[in-house]
Please model this.
Amino acid sequence: MTGVRVVDVTKSCGRTCALAGVTFGAGPGVTGLLGPNGAGKTTLLRMLATVLAPDSGTLRLLGRDPQDTGDRLEIRRRLGYLPQEPGFHRGFTVFEFVDYVAILKELTDRRARHDEVRRVIDLVGLADVADRRIRALSGGMKRRVGVAQAVLGDPDLVVLDEPTAGLDPEQRLRFRDLVSRIGEGRSVILSTHQTEDVAALCPHVVVVDGGRVAFDGTPGQLTSMARGRVWLAPERAPAARIAWRTAEGDVRNVGDIAPPGAQVVLPTLEDAYLLLVGDRARGVAA
Amino acid sequence: MPELARVQAWRVARHPALLLGLLWYVLGVGLDGPAAPYDRYSMVTAMLVFLLAVPAYFAVNLVATSGRRSGVDEWTGALPMPPLHRTVAMLLAAAAPAVIAAVASLGWLALHGGDTGLPLLWQHVASPPAAILGAGLLGVAVARLLPWPGLPLVAVVAVVTANAWVSAHWPYLGAYVDFVRSTGGDAIPAREPGSAGWHLGYLLALCALAAAGALLPVARRPWLPFAAGALAGVVVLVACSLQLP
Model:
């Protein structure tokens, strides 16, 4: 069964057109969703989390229609969602908050629920601070609380909106380990600005730009789009869209075409992403 | 839903507003307790309402609105438990201050050997917890019907002002927790007793009215709480008349 199927979905927020006909599908495994700020990623994820309804188009989640009341309830029972900026009851302890979400997820048997809460808290590495109040946690720890509640009850579809924001490098690596485990056997939609996370985790990547899908394929296919368009030179090249001096002292130029005689190098996913979304990505790449 | 009600009740019970009200009550009655007969009687029939109802209202309202204020509601809407069940759980949790008030009343009676100095009916003892239950339920209703910052304060100021106005113009309708003729040491002029049972019915009907109001925005069939609220409104009017001496 396809985890997510989105066909020609549109959504307007006031006068702004957030999504202008988005189409893509995502099956089991981790699907990376890339895009510059304001591309419509969060709007799309809120739809996948059944928080928002599309203005038009077709949305199928876990083979069901979220517009239908009964289907929506069934989807919500099998869905885990971490929003971009999750609010917390700050007076709750970690355990109390995850338990509170577990109750809202209709895990009714108290003993089984507490076992499940302890399992997910342990999964995200917060067992030592389970009794600490959320207001006393660091930003990275709060993100992990958010991830813990998202994986409560082993959901079939997990929607994570920028889960690595605010995490230090070690936490990010731990998070990759966690997401790759979550992605085994279920659908995970991962929105991020970190192309390294996508390259490391996602067999499938969708790039959203200006409310449309700019790319839908594998990271390898996306990277290959930049082949022959990344080169090293002693100085910034006029033909480069983006260029930066590397640690080795050379300038890495990313542009439409490498000048004759340039030292062309293998592109990365980030190079391809920069080329695809152009100037709008510069804020992300900086 | 019972599990959510338990969690929310615990949040209400330990809310600073309610704890402050309880502290006020303890300080207000003093550690030795009142000596005059009427004041002893008032301990279980009036003081709790005066000192705990408003804190209970704010405690319940703040718990009921905490999800909106903290941003939790923006994403927990995607969780399976429907809004109707969440509101019913909150209404059940609103009983926590009333339970605390009942325990305080009965505890006071037990400590003083049941001697209130004046004749006491079980309806007298039940009325303050019922009034505090109404305050809590009103807190939920305001949270659901008026979900804008500042309006819970406006609502409670309106209720207190209206009560003070009624007390000034129709003394039998205001401060009508005194059901028996008071004796020496009475701070309130002597009055003819009314019906303690109908007064309790009046308070419970007000509770039902507040609960119906809270359920109105989240019910699958809004006419049901609307009809229940209308019925409760009629009972309020009838009981209000019949409680008078």
